[in-house]
Amino acid sequence: MVDGLWTELCVTRSNGKISRDREGGNEKGGEEEVVGREITAMEMSGVDRAGLLSELAGVLVEQDFVVTAATAWTHNDRVACIILVEDAIKAGPISDPKRLGLMEEQLENVVAAHRGERKRVRMTRLGAGNTHRERRLHQLMYADRDYESCRACEGDSSGEHKKGCDGTHVSVGKCEDKGYLVVNVRSRDRPKLLFDTVCVLTDMQYVVFHAAISSKRSIAHQEYYIRQMGSSVIPSESEKQKLTLCLIAAVERRLSHGLRVDIVSENRVGLLSNVTRVLRENGLSISRVEIGTKGGKAVGSFFVTDCSGEEVNPNIVELVRQETGGSVVTDHKSPHRPHKSSSSSSVIHQTNDTEEAKQKFSLGSLLWSRLERLSGGFGPIRS
């Protein structure tokens, strides 16, 4: 099984190194298939802040780009996102390099306006085939060093843990005879956990020789015997500490916090911009996004938290429904909270007699976002 995963992940490598020509995320085995045509993608990573995705989506709308899919993760105050776009005027990828260059510059100004962030936006054209956005998100966050703020449960980076703790724990030992590192990962079990772990080992140029995977109740145990590619030398203590932090980060990136808002709506130009604007204006921060299109409909999920740390007002569901014109499903999610059954979720469909929810307008959030846009030399975003 590990050999199969390794074959799939190593498609990004060429001559023993990660291929820079394939870094755009065009790897085999992706979760979304784009057949027979090129696609245009925007990649971004940097410091997370409330309203950032809304501002990026607003710029795309202003420049006649339509969003066909978007995936974003946040972790340790960092964010990485990939947005697939098409030409809103004539359907298809954007082929004009000048137009792509101008869009990249404008998006870069939005990202850099906050804290002088270095260049973190890239517009790229992906070839026809499969696009694995989650695989690419791991690469973006690893390159952005989101792992540097990771800590074990006691607040250190040793990987040790207390009895009964259900957090993420990593230990790295040695097998002197074979020149292996022995890596043990203990965490809560969840979908795609093995994929996330092997991704970071691949990005760090480690080869897996043996592995043992088990799961008991809600806890998963992973053990790997690894060696750095092309070397039989045991890594130094600093390299082992970095590996520990990177594995913790890989497990934690996909954890979802806050209120989950699922939407199903007719896809249209500006839909992502409108939904994220409503969330921003009500003082909400987006912790994770996964949205795409199926049969002309936009289908996806937003995980939102209140910027002030309070519980998310459930009335936000009605405001989102008004923007999408479709159905909205909500469910509270937490990395340490069991998933609620569908019977505990609230489903709201479009009706004529639904009472309009009262908005919690965040003037400070909106004013700050406008000042940042002005500092980048832009006019205001059209809502």
UniProtKB/TrEMBL annotation:
Keyword annotations for this protein?
A: Repeat
Chain coiled-coil ranges = none
Q: Where is this region: Disordered?
A: 324-356
* Gene Ontology MF: a single term: amino acid binding
Per UniProt, residues of the ACT domain are 41-121, 260-336
Q: Which residues cross the membrane?
A: none
Is Transport set as a keyword in this record?
A: no
Identify the InterPro entries for this entry. Answer: ACR1-12, ACT-like_dom_sf, ACT_dom
Give the superkingdom in one word: Eukaryota
Classification via PROSITE patterns: ACT
Q: What does this protein do?
A: Binds amino acids.
What's the protein here called?
A: ACT domain-containing protein ACR
Q: Could you tell me which species this protein originates from?
A: Vigna radiata var. radiata (Mung bean)
**Could you tell me the gene encoding this protein?**
LOC106776469
